[in-house]
Amino acid sequence: MSYLPLSRKYRPQNFDEVVYQEFVVDTLKNAIELGKISHSYLFTGPRGVGKTSLARIFAKAINCLKPESINPCNICDNCKEITNGTSMDVVEIDGASNRGIDEIRQLRENVKFVSVKCKYKVYIIDEVHMLTDAAFNALLKTLEEPPEYVIFIMATTDAHKIPATILSRCQKFDFQKIPHDFMYKYLQKIMEKEEIVYENDALNIIIRNSEGCMRDALSLIDQVIAFGDNKVTYKDTLFLLGMSDKKLIEELFKNIIYEKIEDIYDLIEEIDSKGLNFQYVVKTLIEYTRILLFGVAGSKKFDSHLTEDEKELFKILLPMATEQKLFALFQIFQKTLNDMKTLTLPRYIFEFGIYKACRISEIIPVGSTQTKPVTQKTSGHQAEIKEQSAPKDETIEDKWNSFLKKLADIKPALSANLSHGFISSFSNGKLTIGFSDEKKFHYELTAKRENFNLAKELLLKYNADFKDFEIILDNNNKKKTIIEKIYEAETFQQRKMKQEAENDEIVNLIKNEFDCKIDKITLLTKS
Predict the structure, then answer these.
(1) In terms of pLDDT, which residue wins out, 512 or 410?
(2) How many angstroms separate the CA atoms of 434 and 397, rounded?
(3) Is the distance from CB of 431 to CB of 459 less than 8 angstroms?
(4) Distance CA 116, CA 413 (A)
(5) What pLDDT does 71 receive?
(6) SS3 325
(7) Are the beta carbons of 303 and 310 closer than 8 angstroms?
């Protein structure tokens, strides 16, 4: 007997075998049980999630001679014929190749004939959105008032292409992509049942590339099994998916996040020499940017579907990334991808895009942005400011300023936000930084748990004079912030230079291209 592909071998044959589409399954089972079967159904959703399979199961269930509760028995003549596609009463039509008005007219004529063996005559029209307008119009009357023994089940991946006149005559069911966890458990059972040796990372990669489509996942596994002598290994999977040079792309992404431009040319040369498609590389960079963004945003399961190598990579990169930086990188990668699709010289476009990504901090501000700032809580009521004024010892202020410069190398946005505060008090090694109400926004960003804890940890680590640290809202102090002191120290000429830089033509071009604004302008002096 010839080999039966896994996608066909494990195609659901009853309602209980359908993966994840519980809402649709339960509704159809209840309709059968209550005897409230509609004359037309529309199944919509992504490819390979069970639309046609469930249509067949439904056709078997309503025509089964020996039903097991609601499920078809799959052993009676009607069930076998429907499963094998030989039933005279269950007709499957490919909407893509039978899309004209003549085919639909023929269908309308056939509808008039009663079923041969089954109780219901079922027409399953796959990819129904491919029908022409004239064909849809010809189908309307039949859909609205079909004979009582006729049921239409239409399936499509593009529901928006179905005319409203057709939609209004159908019960519509939306199928969903199968989540990673559901698909993983299902594929594990198949691997164990088929006695196939597999690696967890290989299954993760297969599921991610199948994009929620069970049929695609099983087809990929078939391909890997054929290549790997009944084994599903991570190495073979990467090779067959064209991802064997994934490490090279990971290294490129690492250099972009670290903004290490010196190795970029060699990496691009290697990517080109190995024949990697530049568009594929950029798409992978976009995927990595998305994953890292979820990590920065605090998603607990952002790495749950990653391979062990990928988890290690993102663990290293996470402290170096900010939301704003990742937003900016996404814009660069997306623009690079679009340009490569429409313009010539793809390598040049790719190179400029990658170099721009490596210099992102010099082009636009890439500090952290937080959508839901949470104020750091203090014990009891708002912490009181001690009556003693901030120490006049310039040494403490110098050390605080020095710390902010060190922090800027590690977490630029946090350093910038702290610069909007001032030394409210310093007593017994405890440093209190105050923020006025006008700077409440910067206070709230700094007060986020991860930011505050990082600032405190590094402050105590870098200088033995500081034993404790807190930040408060302080409107009683008239002290100037570091930002204000810097501004007052600027000469008229320096402020004029900054104004000229802000109005510079190239700067405005960058602002327009990235839809951004200038956060800070720093004048560099020759050493």
Answers:
(1) 410
(2) 14
(3) yes
(4) 74
(5) 92
(6) helix
(7) yes
CB 327 within 8 A of CB 364: no
Task: Confirm if 319 and 301 have CB atoms less than 8 A apart.
Answer: no
As a whole number of angstroms, the distance between CA 84 and CA 67 comes to: 18
Neighbours of 217 (CB within 10 A): 26
* pLDDT tens profile 65-93: 988 889 999 999 999 999 998 999 999 98
Give the pTM.
0.62
* Domains defined for the chain, CATH in brackets: 6-174 (3.40.50.300), 180-240 (1.10.8.60), 246-363 (1.20.272.10), 394-488 (3.30.300.180), 490-527 (no CATH)
Of the ranges 13-17, 106-110, 119-123, 354-358, which one carries the lowest mean pLDDT score? 106-110
Angular region, 290: left φ>0, alpha ψ -120 to 50, beta rest: alpha
* Residue 415 binned pLDDT confidence (cut-offs 50, 70, 90): confident
Give the Cα separation of 430 and 466 in Å (integer): 6
- Which one, of 54, 42, 52, lies nearest residue 163 by Cα? 42
Distance CA 65, CA 76 (A): 6
Tell me how far apart the alpha carbons of residues 361 and 424 are, in angstroms, rounded to a whole number. 31
Q: Could you give the 3-state DSSP secondary structure of residue 477? A: coil
Whether the Cβ atoms of residue 418 and residue 473 lie closer than 8 Å to each other: no
Q: What Rg do the C-alpha atoms of the chain give, in angstroms?
A: 32
Output the DSSP codes for 368-436. ---SS--PPP-SSSSPPPPSSPPP--HHHHHHHHHHHHHHHHH-HHHHHHHTT-EEEEEETTEEEEEE-
What is the chain's length? 527
Cα separation of 367 and 418, whole Å? 13
d(CA 449, CA 455): 10
The reported pLDDT for the residue numbered 373 is 38
CA distance 39 to 527: 83
C-alpha–C-alpha distance, residues 390 and 267, integer Å: 52
Lowest mean pLDDT among 68-72, 167-171, 470-474, 496-500: 496-500
**What is the rounded distance in angstroms from the CA atom of residue 157 to the CA atom of residue 91?**
20
